[in-house]
Design brief:
Length: 331
């Protein structure tokens, strides 16, 4: 069946630090689906949502979560939708959780042969138990400078700091712990930042052209991601054809080993020797006017409304993702 006339419920907003981005993404997806002929309802993920879904179960064909931050991206919402047997666009709960946890995603892709920067992952309790000064000293011995300090779980570059020397760790750690109780410290890779969108419209995952980002400030932070004029985008990226093919292949590998579905964005930095380094993967990428997956879709010569309609159609037709087990919940 096509999406025309079918009821798609878009979830956007929420209470995370990325609420505004989610609202903007939700509006863009809504506009595209309406253009494709769908009936669209946009809802907040609040205390009325689950009862409303149960009451309107027969009328809702598919739910599309366009949520950023913990409640939307860590797989817990997907688990609840599965429990209610509501079809949705997106990955299995466990895959979403693995992608949301940067350390887990790095471990999986490294096992699959991708390169990812050396890193240390520590919970906040470690600093309390062993003493912040001693822990920072040990970190500085194990990680090459410059380093990146980021929350283990988080998105949109929030809570991320760059550290050039040991004395800068304290402030960077405080910033990261504002967003999560775990911190990931990794060697900073310098080079060309490219993000590769991966889609599965029914014939298996494929990569759209990678998008190169060149932020005016030199740092692709929250402002550079979502404020018009803060970043120059090149879609496709200014890379040699063989490097585009390589990074596209790596993105599909990451997509598969993490177990993502429908769509994702995989981020790399390509160093001066032409080596792509995996940074992170996002199973609910932004869909705003400056977001990278839509730019890649445009660069592929695909129509956004047709792509989004196909994603919604497939999710509605496959049902509540009961296989291989209905109990694939985040625990």
């Amino acid at each position: 069946m096509t999406i025309e006339g079918r009821h798609v419920v878009i979830l956007s907003g929420g209470i995370s630090h990325e609420r505004d981005v989610s609202l903007r993404s939700g509006r863009r997806v809504s506009d595209a689906l309406i253009k494709a002929g769908a009936r669209v309802t946009v809802r907040e993920p609040d205390e009325t949502l689950l009862p409303w879904l149960e009451e309107n179960f027969e009328d809702v064909d598919v739910v599309w979560p366009v949520l950023h931050g913990v409640s939307g991206e860590n797989g817990s919402l997907y688990s609840l939708l599965r429990a209610l047997e509501v079809p949705y666009v997106g990955s299995r709960p466990t895959a979403a959780k693995l992608a949301w946890d940067k350390a887990s995603a790095k471990a999986l892709v490294k096992r699959a042969g991708l390169r990812t920067p050396q890193s240390i992952v520590l919970p906040q309790d470690t600093f309390r138990e062993l003493g912040a000064a001693s822990v920072i000293h040990a970190i500085s011995k194990g990680i090459d400078f410059p380093a990146v300090v980021k929350p283990v779980e988080g998105g949109s570059s929030q809570g991320v700091s760059f550290v050039e020397e040991t004395l800068q760790f304290s402030r960077a750690l405080v910033t990261a712990f504002t967003y999560d109780e775990g911190v990931l410290i990794e060697r900073k890779v310098t080079g060309t930042e490219v993000m590769v969108g991966v889609l599965d419209l029914g014939d298996g995952p494929f990569a759209v052209p990678p998008v190169e980002v060149v932020p005016t400030s030199g740092v692709y932070d929250y402002a550079a991601r979502y404020n018009a004029g803060e970043t120059t985008f090149f879609a496709p990226a200014r890379l040699a054809p063989e490097l585009i093919a390589k990074v596209s292949e790596l993105a599909i590998t990451a997509y598969n080993v993490i177990g993502m579905a429908d769509m994702a964005r995989v981020d790399f930095i390509i160093d001066d020797e032409g080596i792509p380094w995996f940074i992170e993967a996002d199973p609910i990428p932004g869909m705003t006017e400056t977001s990278l997956l839509p730019l890649g879709i445009d660069a592929a010569g695909l129509e956004l409304s047709e792509v989004y309609a196909k994603l919604a159609e497939r999710a509605a037709d496959r049902g509540p993702r009961n296989t291989p087990t209905h109990t694939d919940f985040v625990v």
